[in-house]
Amino acid sequence: MKIDAGVSVSEQFTDNVFLTANDRRSDFVTVLEPWVALSLSRQDFRLNLEAAAEVGRFADNSSEDYNDYFLGAEARYRINGNLFAFGGLDYAWDHESRNSPDDVDGVEPTELRDASGFFGLGGKVNGRSFRLGVNVRRLDYDDVLQFNGATFANIDNDDRDRVETEVGGRLGVASTENGEFFVQGIYDKREYDDRFDNAGLGFRRSSDGFQAALGYTGQVGDLKGEALLGIMSQDYDDPRFGRTTTVDFGADLTWPISAKTDLTGILERSIEETTLNGASGYISSSAGLRLRHRVAPDMSIAGYFFLTQNDYQEVSRSDVLTETGLSLRYYLNPRIYMDTDYDFLQRQSDVAGVDYDEHRLTLSFGTALDPRYRKDAPNLAKAGASGFYVGTQLGDTALQTKNDGPRGAGGNLTADFGDHDLSGGVFAGYRTDFGNLVLGAEAEVEFSDSGWTHQGNRNFSAKRGNSFGVSALAGVRTRNDTLVFGRFGLVSTEFDSTYQQGLNPLVSVSDRELGLLVGIGTEVPLGRGLSGRMEYQVRAYEDYPIGSPLGGADDDNFANIESVARVGLVYEFGARNRPGPEIEPTDFSGFYAGVQLGHGTVQSDNTGPRPNAAAPTFTLATTRAGHGFTGGLLAGYGYQANDFYIGGEAEFELSTADWNIERSPEGRIYSVEKIGSIGAGLRLGYVVNDSVLIYGRAGVVRSRFNSNYQFGGVSVDQDDDLDGVRFGGGVEFAVGEKTHVRFDYTQTEYDSHSVNYVAGVDQFDTSERLFRVGLTRAF
């Protein structure tokens, strides 16, 4: 028998407790997580037992306090050399996150109980593996109170209680030297306790469905893991819901980039349940990367990026959720560790008002009975070279403001505005090497005049001034001393905002707002203590009220978000006295292909008629802006002659960048969303230190934009393929024998387009700024 147990205590700061676009609230959360695991093995029998708890206490918002518990058991019995039986039970007392689309904005989170059990048989028949099993899950949601502005009302969640049953199997059909092809099928039934839900139209949500797929598990080259492709379908009891059928895909692959670094890629798709009024469910598609680097037995650093699209069926709603983060673990001794974590979460939707972003900072201390390494293990992490550095930088700052405020008699406006401008500044910091891990702290001053204006029945604007920031940095030195780093920190920025309504006096507000930032970048050594830096940051600030007059019931709420791309020059004191690594020359010639992930802004100069009683021929002129993530593929060919480089490249990408406006219950609702692009271009560059390519680029792209416009009973859903000229630049360097990483920033100017909604025509002149990180493989 083997027993292990532990406990961790965390202090977490979140800048958005309720996950809202406006009226954000920050808080500190103390989290206690004890756990115990018991393992019993007897020849052909193995039993694992687990118990855990998570207790969270909020400093200012005690209504969000939670107590979660988990119990689990799993057993496996080998019947003979070719057959085994397995089974298990899980029970959880849990709470629903505020990011759930089914969250009813209760005065406290919805609590639930989640019980499941599974059993089955597995083994081999005629050399082919097989697995057959049954899984039953029971979900029971508690009722919760909701405050409607005057009184409390009870939200009956009994219509969400259900039993989900899955029966499935997998059979190997062909073996390879390092793996096996398989087929699998699953039948599932979802039975709700209540025949009809509590929505106004009383939908019947019970359903049954299936999944069928062909896959491979094993190893191909350096890749290890599993991938599958197939079809899935769900048929609902309610005749108003059509059958949902879609492609099924999944993958869980690990790529060992080096002896100490692993990259894991994950793809998932499923059909999920919802009680959103009118929706039968939603198709959830996820893609993500996890990178873990083991600096030493007592220290590791990890980063992750996940992108999920939830496409709701039978209603017009699509959400994109992004999660990214960076964590560092250091063991004080073999049983006690310290974690520092930064996480950024974001939801973007084509439904106005449900977007949000959240920054979380967490410091944890934990312990476990079993040691995680030998006390006398060699190569434990030790501080190495340390030193101060200074630098200067120039960038492009895009400011986006989410505006929320009352309009008319009981109405509301939710709208996105923004613009961009140049920025510049200076910085200084201190950092220490732990092997090839670099930890540091940095302070900076930045100057910029980015801002936007809106002219209509109400005139208002926002403009940012100088900013001061402090950050913690964590990075890894790759081949040839190139540094790849992430950062998180605090930034204080001055915002000048104006507001005028009708004949009321003009109100001006100038104040500093505190924000949290996350960034990623690289530093390329240039010699003699100098390095070139390229970086991208996303910042989210405290929101604030503004109106005319200020302080009234009609005040708007401004929530500012920035994205900043910049290049800089760094000088490190004492660097010339330290021996540099032996340079491994990189040849950038030849064919290559890869993937890239990015974040950027879409900005549209919006003009259109807005007649009113005071100005019958008035024309709106403003700038709409929003941001989002992209992902795609690229392939190209390059030729290097001495240190000069020329190459051609083709690219394909999908995007979530959008902005939207909603005036409810009466008024205009419209949005512009970038769907994806195809493009081609040239890269011209110069190779520095025989190992780093610094390049400029120019090319053309064709991007699809979706415009949705609703006004006066008319609804327009329009797709436009717009041509654009894309230009920019970046850096590229090797992290393996044939593996390269690139940091790339571009701007794209698109052809204008218009939307005719019968009562008028709106014009949109759109541009895009995009920062991407790419991973390529040379052939």
Short synopsis of the structure:
The protein has no helices and 40 strands. The chain is an all-beta fold and 779 residues long.
Describe the secondary-structure layout.
Layout: E1 2-14, E2 27-42, E3 45-58, E4 66-80, E5 83-95, E6 111-125, E7 128-141, E8 144-147, E9 152-155, E10 162-175, E11 179-192, E12 207-220, E13 223-236, E14 244-256, E15 261-272, E16 282-296, E17 299-312, E18 318-333, E19 336-349, E20 356-368, E21 386-407, E22 411-434, E23 437-448, E24 451-455, E25 458-477, E26 483-501, E27 507-527, E28 530-541, E29 544-546, E30 556-572, E31 590-609, E32 619-641, E33 644-655, E34 658-664, E35 669-688, E36 692-711, E37 714-734, E38 739-750, E39 753-756, E40 761-778
Antiparallel strand pairs: 1-2, 1-20, 2-3, 3-4, 4-5, 5-6, 6-7, 7-10, 8-9, 10-11, 11-12, 12-13, 13-14, 14-15, 15-16, 16-17, 17-18, 18-19, 19-20, 21-22, 21-30, 22-23, 22-34, 23-25, 24-25, 24-32, 25-26, 26-27, 27-28, 28-30, 29-30, 31-32, 31-40, 32-33, 33-35, 34-35, 35-36, 36-37, 37-38, 38-40, ...
What attributes characterize this protein structure?
mainly beta, globular, 779 residues, 18-stranded antiparallel barrel, 20-stranded antiparallel β-sheet
Structure explained in plain terms:
This protein has strands at residues 2-14, 27-42, 45-58, 66-80, 83-95, 111-125, 128-141, 144-147, 152-155, 162-175, 179-192, 207-220, 223-236, 244-256, 261-272, 282-296, 299-312, 318-333, 336-349, 356-368, 386-407, 411-434, 437-448, 451-455, 458-477, 483-501, 507-527, 530-541, 544-546, 556-572, 590-609, 619-641, 644-655, 658-664, 669-688, 692-711, 714-734, 739-750, 753-756, 761-778. It is mainly β. It has a 20-stranded antiparallel sheet that branches. It has an 18-stranded antiparallel beta barrel. The radius of gyration is 28 Å and the shape is globular. 32% of the residues are buried.
